[in-house]
Amino acid sequence: MSRIDKIICVKNISPNYALSECLFKKVCASYGAVFCINMVQLEDGLGYALCEFMDRKNAENAFNNLNGLELDGHVLKVAWAKEAKKYSSEWKRRI
């Protein structure tokens, strides 16, 4: 299993959470052990996060529970990093 198989891309994150990596990491950690997280805030104030979990099982749990979850008035959209090419290529440059 490659490293990318444990990374999810969470989009449509509220500005309140996009400004606080620590706060959003707590949300993700409630679904499994997080190895690292990288957040980006977009021009419109919303953000996205690339979350790498310690194992695939934790990543799947987060994927299933975060996708469609309303957080601070915004419905989260989750994709596997390998399916979100735009995000995964940026992630690879940062790690």
Model description:
The chain has 95 residues and is of the alpha+beta class. The protein has a single domain (3-94), classed as Alpha-Beta Plaits. The chain is built from four helices and six strands. The radius of gyration is 12 Å and the shape is globular. The mean pLDDT is 87. Pfam families: RRM_1. Keywords: RNA-binding. It comes from Meloidogyne graminicola.
What share of residues are in beta strands? 25-35%
CATH H level: which superfamily? RRM (RNA recognition motif) domain
Helix content: 25-40%
Number of helices: 4
Using the CA coordinates, give the radius of gyration: 12 Å
Total number of beta strands: 6
Domain count, please report it.
1
> What is the molecular shape?
globular
* Uncertain residue ranges: none
Enumerate the strands of the largest sheet in spatial order, edge to edge or round the barrel.
2-3-1-6
Question: How do the strands and helices of this protein lay out in sequence?
Answer:
Elements: E1 7-13, H1 15-18, H2 21-29, E2 34-41, E3 47-53, H3 56-66, E4 70-71, E5 74-75, E6 77-80, H4 85-94
Quick overview:
This protein has 95 residues and is α+β, with helices and mostly antiparallel strands. It has helices at 15-18, 21-29, 56-66, 85-94, and strands at 7-13, 34-41, 47-53, 70-71, 74-75, 77-80. 36% of the residues lie in helices and 32% in strands.
